[in-house]
Amino acid sequence: MTGGVSDGLYGPPSRDALREWVMGAPEVILEDPEIMRALLSREATEARRVVDLRGALIARLEQRLSALQEAHHDVVEAAYDSLSDMAQTHGAVLTLLECSGVGRLAERIRDKLPEVLRVDAARLCLSSGRRGGAARVVPAELLERCAPARSPRPIKSAKGPDRPGPSGAGDPAVAAMAMSLRPMTAEDSRAFGPAAKGLGGVAVITLDLGADRGPAALMFAVAEPDQLHVGGLPEVLSFVGAVVERLIRAQDSALRRGRAAAQERLRR
Questions:
Q1: What pTM was computed for the model?
Q2: How far apart (Å, rounded) are the C-alpha atoms in residues 64 and 93?
Q3: Stretch (H or E) spanning 78
Q4: What is the rounded distance in angstroms from the CA atom of residue 117 to the CA atom of residue 221?
Q5: What are phi and psi of 123, to 5 degrees?
Q6: What phi and psi values does residue 120 have, to the nearest 5 degrees?
Q7: Residue 201 has what DSSP assignment?
Q8: d(CA 44, CA 139)
Q9: pLDDT (tens digit, 0 to 9) for every residue of the chain, 268 residues total?
Q10: CB within 8 A of 178, min separation 6: which ones?
Q11: What secondary structure, in 3-state letters, does the chain show?
């Protein structure tokens, strides 16, 4: 015997050798749950007149510990997902707030938002405006067919009701944003032009920019439609849509006030 129960050359160890080894290293037995379970089960079987509930208690505690560990893992995972959604949302909003004018905003949506939101393409689609700019000018009737009607009901996603959405997702204005998540159609691809090649899924968010601008939509595209349902992405996209809508309305309102002030000064 050299450092173990047996050197493997003379068959199973003797009772005395096994006892000596166990006495020398009891932690090997105590730290092995399967061995301890077998010993307790054997003891309960041989004690015919005594009911030993230790084995059942240990099994029950192990089950509860396993359930607690699983619940802890789910909570931690949900917290990380929520933090990731919040970081995405904050990054997207900060990117948009730096813009002045609809043209600059459309450029930022096209060039910066895909990287921030981890989608493949993004476009601001308007039914009126200057062609050739970053905003896609799409016929009003096409936008009306592609963009979903506004609804007071919030969107549904794989996140579920018990997982928090991004900051601001509880705002009624955000919840009322109409969004359609679907495979890319030929009409949808017109909004992305040559960039539509290789894209298979699209999120279309209807924007209400007022009567002066007519139908409008914010569109995000990905390679696979299932990517749009991952985590809290639908809620993030809906929130970004609400931010874009408010920014454009605020910019248009500021322009109208500026024109009115200029006209007033001329009259004086």
A1: 0.60
A2: 43
A3: helix 54-97
A4: 11
A5: -145, 140
A6: -95, -25
A7: E
A8: 81
A9: 445 555 545 567 788 888 888 888 888 877 787 877 777 666 555 555 555 566 667 777 888 888 888 888 888 877 777 777 777 778 778 878 877 788 888 888 888 888 888 899 999 888 776 554 566 666 666 776 777 766 544 444 434 433 334 444 455 556 557 888 889 888 888 888 888 888 999 999 988 888 778 788 899 999 988 888 877 788 888 888 989 999 888 888 888 888 888 888 888 7
A10: 147, 148, 149, 150, 151, 205, 206
A11: CCCCCCCCCCCCCCHHHHHHHHHHCCHHHHCCHHHHHHHHHHHHHHCCCCCCCHHHHHHHHHHHHHHHHHHHHHHHHHHHHHHHHHHHHHHHHHHHHCCCCHHHHHHHHHHCHHHHHCCCEEEEEECCCCCCCCCEECCHHHHHHHCCCCCCCCCCCCCCCCCCCCCCCCCHHHHCCCEEEEECCHHHHCCCHHHHCCCCEEEEEEECCCCCCCCEEEEEEECCHHHHHCCCHHHHHHHHHHHHHHHHHHHHHHHHHHHHHHHHHHHC
For residue 63 the two structure tokens come to 């089950």
How is residue 168 written in tokens? 């601001």
Token pair for 247: 């920014």
Q: Scanning the structure block, which residue is given the tokens 């510990």?
A: 65
